[in-house]
Amino acid sequence: MTPRPVLSNPQISALFQLMKQAGDDILAVYHDRSRWQTDHKADDSPVTAADLAASRRLVAGLPDILDCPVLSEEALVPYTERQSWQTYWLVDPLDGTREFLHKSDEFVINVALMHENQPIFGMLFQPVTGIGWWGGQDVAAQQGKPGSATVIRAEAVTGPVQVLGSRRSAWQGAWRDRLETAGFDVDTRSVGSALKFMMLANGSAHCYPRLGPTSEWDTAAPQAILTAAGGRLVQWNGEPLRYGKTSTLNPEFVAVSDPDLLAVLCL
Asked: What does DSSP assign to residue 259?
């Protein structure tokens, strides 16, 4: 069993710079519609030149920060090879490709450091704003840029529950009845990509019920940051998400800023 790695401040700064470079690759496509050729993968999800350019950048650069394998959504590795990995990078080079295509600006890059198939550190970077979020088991949750970041903390519910959902898929469900039966008022808002998790982590929202398909690279980095901020992400039965599976698909889940909400929401 290999020891759990801990990223140093210089490594975190280097990761931010690498993700910024990948963000610049994305923006080069975002601002040039002549490069907007879109293909579709087997699950009918879109993939663009921006996804592929960012993936190439990250797959090439991440081992220079911490020398371990890289699993990217756009550079998949067979399970027979990755099942033995103790430590690895897990990457979504463009989370929110549909938001990219709708020009909403609500897309991010997700990079998680995994150890024994759990996210121990995560960083998100929003190319349009240049803002990052990061945190993990040994690093406080933060928002901004290295050297001038602000520590963030998920908030307990003291008024209406601020619930976030996807712009592009259905997400209304029994969670609303559970909250209202427990006496909570509910406000809802649609937000793209993993930015929803960061709104939980920085105290600007409380709940993200996910009722559609996601993959491990969609949740690993956000989960590390949200957990470091004091929030939680679990399956609807209250059990944790599992990573490093034969299939990279996640079960449906709920993320919360206030762990006390899980007693109301989980079956």
From this structure: G
Please tell me the distance from the alpha carbon of residue 234 to that of residue 246, in angstroms, as a whole number.
19
DSSP letter at 215? B
Q: Is 153 helix (H, G, I), strand (E, B) or coil?
A: coil
Centre a 10 Å sphere on the Cβ of residue 246 and count the other Cβ atoms it contains: 8
d(CA 7, CA 83): 23
- Are 207 and 161 spatial neighbours (Cβ–Cβ below 8 Å)? yes
Q: For the chain, which domains are there?
A: 9-151 (3.30.540.10), 161-265 (3.40.190.80)
**pLDDT at residue 32, as a whole number:** 83
Give me the residues of the chain with pLDDT under 50, please. Answer: 44
Task: Name the one residue in this structure whose structure tokens are 């470079």.
Answer: 21
Contact 221, 214 (CB under 8 A): no
Geometric angle at alpha carbon 188, from 184 and 194, rounded to 5°: 120
Predicted local distance difference test score (pLDDT) of residue 173: 76
CA distance 51 to 204: 28
Phi, psi of 130 (to 5 degrees): 75, 15
pLDDT digits (tens, 9 = 90+) for 229-252: 999 999 999 999 999 999 999 999
